[in-house]
Amino acid sequence: MRIGRRMPTTTTLVVLLSMLHVAPASAGSRPRDAVRARVASVSQKWSDPATWHGHLPQEGADVVVPAGSRIVLDVSPPPLGGLEIDGSLSFRDKRLDLTAKWIVVHGALKVGTEKDPFVHRAEITLTDDDTSADVMEMGTKVLGVMGGTLDLHGRSTKGWTHLAQTAAAGTRKIELATGRGWRVGDRIVLASSDYWSDHDEERTITDVDGTSLELDTPLNYQHWGALQTFAGRTVDERAEVGLLSRNIVVSGDIDTVSRGFGGQVVVMEGSRARIEGVEFRDMGQRNRLRRYPVHFHMDGSATGSYLKQSSIDHSFNRCVVVHGTDGLLVKGNVCYDHVGHGFFLEDGAETGNKFIGNLGLGTRATENGLLPTDERPATFWITNPDNIVRNNVAAGSEGFGFWYALPQHPTGLSENGTVWPRRTPLGEFKGNTAHSNGDRGLNVDDGPNADGNTDSTNYTPVVDPSDRDSDPVVAHFENFTAYKNRDRGIWLRGENHVVTGAVLADNRSGATFASSESFLEDSLVVGETANKGTPEPWEDTGFGGRELPFFWEPDAPIMGFEFYDGRVGVRNTTFAEFQDNPVRASGALGYLAPDAFSIDPKNFAEAISFDNAKHVYMPDPESGMDGDLSKVFIDKDGSVSGSAGSTVVANNPFLLQPDCSFNAGWNANLCTSDYATLIVAGNDTAAIKPVTLSRSDGVQQILNGCCDDSEDAVTSIIPNRAYGVTFNGGTPSSSNYVLWRGRGRWVTLTVPAPAGARVTRWGQDLATVSGPTALDNRQDSGYYYDSATSTL
Predict the structure, then answer these.
(1) φ, ψ for residue 582, nearest 5 deg
(2) How many Cβ atoms from other residues are within 10 Å of residue 777's Cβ?
(3) What is the value of pTM for the model shown?
(4) H-helix or E-strand containing 772?
(5) What is d(CA 449, CA 16) in angstroms, rounded to the nearest whole number?
(6) Is the pLDDT of residue 53 over 70?
């Protein structure tokens, strides 16, 4: 039987994630027996008894600032019950504390302005300990903005910088890359610069001398602070230093920490929030839906609202949540030590938001989070690609750095079957950095289902997302830096992705594309730098005592670019410092291993350069792994092998012929053959596997399919030759044969079959011929039946 090329079909998974609704406030929600301010035509002082009809609010009192009132907070009042602001409450620029069980703003709450920031210290402390309370359906311990305006403008300061030189373990002095105006008494955090996300360290500044800081206690770990150069390009693994202290503080009370029941800020529909220079400390409520440190909830268009140059530290539930809100600016913030996902787009309908220049670190996993994925959290969880994500740093998560977790359609309150995040063009992903993450730096895969669990997800952007057949749009991931990630710097799944200008260093694997028509271009990939990290005393270390990404598997190879699926490729990219050592192997180019799935024999490398790097490493195929048996890639211009158009082939005799030469250092072969894909499929799983393919020279290969429920077996083959096919489980009642990725090529198959078997192509009877000579002379598919041997 002779077959030509046919393309298989693909399927799409539909996923949903539901969330709860927050209703607007009702008139009956206002505090009873409240102390009400007087309505006046002029501003009134809080400290003036006349403002309160002769009696100042006392401790525990519920207070209402009615519409039409303009109150200036000129003293720190005693701790209040609830505070409802229907008019205006503004802070005088002096040292002030405002403590209340909860605060709801229908009018305006102002601490400073954009043009005239608040320069003294102001603390807003939320205290309600009744976990069952529900203030206007926002829970409690809340600063809620419901149709009003929140203006919090602290002293202008940049929130984070880098080290200017490496800070050794045991030192109390560090040098910053740039002066930031930070002060004695300020709290800072140093990011990890190795594989351990929890090697971040919080300290207090005790002395400032220009860009030099003295800390209250010595550092426990080394924090890298030097730039390195490879092949004329810079690798920046300098640890970030974030400022946690701000002169305006919104926090939970002293009981918050032991109970995990912190404060929350909620900005509701029709509200505006302009927040800059604020510290949110001990916020968020553990395992409670919608109870986050800063939460823009179903705010619709948030153009004009922002969260800038602020910090969120020691959160019990996420960091910044954007839910049903578009056009929000989140810029220059530091988010440190938070449980579960950090910067969080909730439903998948949120678009046009800008996440620019934020630093997130200390992203902690939890087994009892709001979502199953909080067990492997992302510092940036992005559910719709139509947002701007620029110049952010994910500097230490127990899971992922950046996770494009795209549902099939938006979920929860934004549920909409006409919006397709998995087909939506990428807004912008540029200039971001991910390091010291327990899994991947950038993960574009694993979209959420309705129950919060995830499935493999193909991100395939098109011009019209509602029409999957509309023209494709390339998703450009630009100038991404990933280092010291335990698994991979980048993992992509989908179609039409291009990564340009990346710098990937010290990852277990630089990049793996489980994609098609996706490419790494104009990039630098480094195996190991001079940054050896700070291994824990009990972990296995690598050669020279350096920290390993897989300390539990010390001999795991260090790889640069791993081919997978396809067609994928790497162009115009430099690989540096990939060398074997006594502990483990290494290679600039190779394949994901072990692998049971099919790969594209047209995967390629082109215009590659090497700087002290072994070009290729392919481990021997593992038993039962069909993908391992199929691994080949094309060296288009000879920059890998010195022979343009040749193919690098795994150590599998079935794929070799006399023109191939073995490279022992690569554990791979260099061949002049091209390769195609053969699919053998059937409707009877038990009968189709295992499948034995036999070459005419007697070399055999046994295929087992990709997984337990697989009904097909897929492999690379040398085209334009004959193969025998036998089924060790017995002849199936029906079977299918596809020559794929082999345009202009052919194979002849000899297949056991009963007399009278019907052979079709596209449902039509296939042409039958008189014998082998006639079959060999055909230009398209055909067959003949040999009754003596009962074979097609």
Answers:
(1) -60, -15
(2) 9
(3) 0.94
(4) helix 772-776
(5) 5
(6) yes
